[in-house]
């Protein structure tokens, strides 16, 4: 029987450009949140200092997309969904999160446009799925 040697498919993490690109997307996301009136309500929910989130979100997205599990190692037992439970996330706020993230990904324009679009779509669905009302 013939054997095939298939190269394992690159993870979404690798295809998007790894930590460096996720960090650029995150920085653009929080820059938009800090400057665009359309995201003011979302901004107001966050702590005044966004520096910890700028560090943390790319690590979360990295592990979630198949890269290093740094965020989980640093936050054992922490659940992203239950962590958001105390926040009043309605459809409008979830839409602001999804729109800001979609714009951030478009502005950074990762080289692999197909994975960039897939990332924007899945994060859009994830954010809108977190809306409680
Ligand atoms: C649906 C709309 C969302 C809202 C309104 C929201 C809001 C927040 C807020 C207020 C915090 C606390 C940060 C601070 O106080 O500065 C937070 C933390 C966090 N959010 Fe969201 N979030 C949303 C969606 C998401 C999604 C879709 C993801 C992941 C893909 C995500 C990932 C995180 C992570 C990883 C943290 C905490 C980081 C850490 O403690 O290490 N959030 N979020």
From TrEMBL:
Residues passing through the membrane, by range: none
GO molecular function, one term: metal ion binding
Protein name per Swiss-Prot or TrEMBL: Globin
Source organism: Novosphingobium sediminis
Pfam families: Bac_globin
Alphabetical keyword list: Heme, Iron, Metal-binding, Transport
Signal peptide: none
CDD domains: TrHb2_PhHbO-like_O
């Amino acid at each position: 029987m013939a054997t095939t040697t298939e190269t394992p498919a690159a993870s979404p993490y690798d295809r998007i450009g790894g930590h460096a690109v996720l960090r650029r997307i995150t920085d653009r996301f929080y820059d938009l949140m800090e400057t665009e009136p359309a995201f003011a309500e979302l901004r107001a929910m966050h702590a005044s200092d966004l520096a910890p989130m700028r560090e943390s979100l790319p690590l979360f997205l990295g592990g979630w997309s198949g890269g290093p599990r740094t965020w989980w190692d640093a936050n054992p037992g922490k659940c992203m969904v239950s962590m958001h439970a105390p926040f009043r996330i309605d459809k409008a706020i979830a839409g602001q999160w999804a729109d800001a993230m979609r714009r951030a990904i478009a502005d950074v324009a990762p080289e692999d446009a197909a994975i960039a679009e897939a990332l924007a779509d899945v994060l859009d669905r994830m954010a809108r799925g977190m809306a409680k009302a």
